[in-house]
Write a structure and sequence with these properties.
By secondary structure, this protein is of the alpha/beta class. Helix content is 43%, strand content 15%. The radius of gyration is 21 Å and the shape is globular. It binds pyridoxal-5'-phosphate.
Length: 386
């Protein structure tokens, strides 16, 4: 798909001087956990729990770096496995209450593996209209027939499941959804979704990329305790502050992935320092089970205050707060004005979101200073008045 040049978001890089300043701030400990550059407060990244610069993650990665090297140097099944991979897999499995966890170098790759383990050209996949691109690529690669239901709309899903069954009674059905949609901040009604899938004999693949560490019991995601979710995918690149990803499932499906998944077998294993950092993040999240709930409570307050200030109340629940602006250029202008006020936000425009629904994707992080909300409201109000 080609993207009109005017719509291409320019990647910003730091100048060498800014990088030097940043490194010095980190070295002297004067930098705040959530600051992405020397001056801008980060309201854009997915580092929800402010862990990517947490001393425990840095220490774990550093020590693994010294003992195991930078890269794994081979695939898991040849020479790339380190004890830290097995440890992270077993501790995650235990934390999530699943029999098997397999690590992947990225969430994109984990999703490709997940779809190809559950779908073939004989399958009908019924997916939420807003699922992540990686899942769609997985469906395309599997050759399955794809139908899409209206976002989080279980009536729409049920109609499609019924139609798929009546047209092709023998077709295996796979439903794909996410537990926290990254551009909407919304979640499906998890138990009703799982029950619907069960009633129609459909398997359920749930992408927990944005929910993990934040939503559900102790941050275990919305699929926690829901046995009817066939396969969970999660990434360490968001609330876990590291990189890499995993799939969690029962032992039978785990064994199938291990034996058959090219995306698992034929790729260099997750870098050991990232694996160690993810393990350190897991320990922090396990030891601080209230972090996710506190973040959700704080983001509820942000939603209320934004609505009180006359903005459309951001949809959903949790740390992703989409401020719908509509027009692309207005959205870019707003992003620019917030940036001048010291706030880094992301203007998300088509084709990432539907035409006419350009939005500022505001993201709340655990370590943002208390006064951030006031700064944001002030900057938004100044931008509106300008
Ligand atoms: C919902 C969702 N799934 C999967 C991914 C891919 O994860 P990763 O960045 O680890 O490749 C992303 C990241 O953008 C995502 O938003």
């Amino acid at each position: 798909m080609s993207i009109h040049p005017a719509r291409r978001r320019q990647l910003r890089t730091w100048s060498p001087a800014e990088q030097q300043e940043h490194l010095q701030a980190v070295a002297t400990g004067s930098e705040h956990g959530s600051v992405t550059g020397p001056e801008l407060l980060d309201l854009a990244s997915n580092d929800y729990l402010s862990l990517c610069r947490h001393p425990s993650l840095i220490a774990a990665a550093e020590s693994q770096l010294r003992s195991s090297g930078v890269g794994a140097g081979g695939s898991r099944l040849v020479s790339g496995s380190r004890p830290v991979h097995g440890q992270l897999e077993s501790e995650l499995a235990c934390w999530l209450g699943r029999e098997r966890v397999l690590l992947f170098p990225s969430g994109f790759q984990a999703n490709l593996a997940a779809v190809s383990a559950l779908a073939s050209r004989h399958t009908t996949v019924v997916a939420d209209r807003l699922i992540h691109h990686s899942l769609l690529v997985g469906v395309q690669a599997s050759g399955a027939r794809l139908r899409r239901f209206a976002h989080n709309d279980l009536d729409s899903l049920e109609r499609l499941l019924q139609r798929s069954r009546s047209e092709r009674p023998q077709t295996p059905l796979l439903v794909i959804s996410e537990s926290l949609f990254s551009m909407e901040g919304t979640s499906p009604p998890m138990h009703d979704l799982a029950a619907l899938c069960e009633r129609h004999g459909a398997r359920l693949l749930l992408d927990e990329a944005h929910a993990l560490g934040v939503l559900g019991n102790g941050g275990r995601g919305l699929g926690f305790g829901e046995e009817r979710v066939t396969l969970l995918s999660g990434t360490f690149g968001k609330a876990f502050g590291s990189g890499g990803a995993f799939l969690a499932c029962d032992s039978e499906l785990g064994e199938k992935l291990l034996q058959e998944s090219g995306a698992f077998r034929y790729t260099t294993a997750l870098a050991p320092p990232l694996t160690a950092a993810a393990l350190a993040a897991l320990e922090l999240i396990r030891n601080n089970p209230c972090w996710g709930r506190q973040l959700v409570e704080r983001s509820d307050k942000w939603r209320d205050r934004m609505a009180e200030a006359g903005w459309a109340r951001p949809t959903g629940c949790g740390p992703i707060l989409p401020l719908i602006v509509g027009d692309d250029q207005r959205c870019l202008n707003l992003q620019h004005q917030l940036e001048l006020a010291g706030l880094l936000t992301a203007a998300i425009r088509p084709p990432t979101v539907p035409e006419g629904s350009a939005r500022l994707r505001l993201v709340l992080h655990r370590c943002l200073p208390d006064e951030t909300l006031e700064s944001l409201l002030r900057a938004l109000s100044d931008a509106r008045a300008a």
